[in-house]
Design goal:
This protein is an alpha/beta fold. The chain contains 11 helices and 10 strands.
């Protein structure tokens, strides 16, 4: 693929992501979930420390980071904070920088930008040998995109300081996403997601590595009623994102598409009046150093 074609593909993927986030309320659900968890955890990791270092992995446009960094600032206003951001999609990094420019409290934080994938960041850190450690590392909805789940968790956990924490947010086992992607694993896995994972696979890794963790539910549902109307542009865009396909209406065979729609309606969702609400529950997993 030429660089121009790759940029066009990346731009389309980002547009689909932003459309999905706006429609699904996912980020608001995560922010609501961590609002209850983080204050106590921040108090624990900051005890006795004169500065705090934060690492965001595949942070996207920065909405989540901005909220969590603001929480950390408000809890410890006198403690200097640094933020390193690993994000390979330049358009989203630009969006993040624009958000900082209009958020005065974030302008007090020195940011270091690592314009690369999480796996390239791992290679760079290992090659340099000069390892920066962190008090708080977060990996929100990004472990679907790494080649080796166990290695990624092991590496980023190794970057924690004493009393630090790694926060992973991922789809919950047996929720709508898990049901969809594991039922149609062969058909859906491809370029962007080579192997689907839920909280079950993450927790298996944590247990095998002997890591201490806590799991918290992050409830979320969103309306997929329009997905069952072939004439609905909104419905088709949601389906494109949910299946990681450029055009769901042309994907695979009519029988496979019909099977996916039936699964979405009858196994992945609940009825609320005349609306079909997709079960998009997530897990917030706090891993201790």
């Amino acid at each position: 693929m030429s660089s121009e074609a790759q940029q066009a593909s990346d731009s389309s993927d980002i547009q689909n992501l932003e459309f999905y986030l706006q429609h699904s309320g996912e980020q608001e659900a995560v922010l609501g979930g961590v609002q209850d968890v983080l204050p106590g955890q921040f108090k624990r990791i900051a005890a006795g420390k004169s500065s705090l270092d934060v690492l965001g992995v595949r942070s996207g446009g920065g909405k989540m980071d901005a909220h969590m960094l603001s929480l950390l600032q408000s809890a410890f206003p006198a403690v200097p904070i640094t933020a390193d951001i690993v994000e390979g999609r330049s358009q989203l990094t630009d969006n993040f920088k624009a958000l900082i420019a209009k958020t005065p409290n974030l302008q007090k934080i020195p940011f270091v930008w690592h314009s690369m994938s999480s796996e390239d960041y791992e290679k760079q850190v290992k090659a340099k040998g000069d390892v920066k450690k962190f008090d708080f590392i977060h990996m929100i909805q990004m472990l679907y995109f790494v080649d080796n789940l166990a290695n990624s968790i092991k590496f980023f956990h190794s970057l924690l300081k004493n009393n630090g924490m790694l926060m992973i947010v991922i789809e919950t086992a047996h929720d709508g996403w898990d049901t969809l992607w594991k039922t149609y694993n062969k058909e859906l896995c491809g370029d962007s997601i080579s192997e689907y994972r839920s909280s079950a696979e993450v927790i298996t890794c944590l247990k095998s590595q002997g890591l201490k963790y806590e799991e918290y539910d992050v409830p979320n549902t969103f309306d997929i009623t329009e997905c069952f109307n072939p004439a609905s542009e909104t419905g088709q865009r949601i389906l494109n994102y949910m299946t990681a396909k450029d055009d769901f209406s042309q994907f695979s065979t009519p029988e496979t598409r019909a099977g996916i729609l039936d699964l979405l309606k009858n196994k992945c969702s609940i009825k609320k009046g005349d609306r079909v609400m997709f079960n998009a529950k997530m897990s917030c997993i706090i891993v201790h150093a």
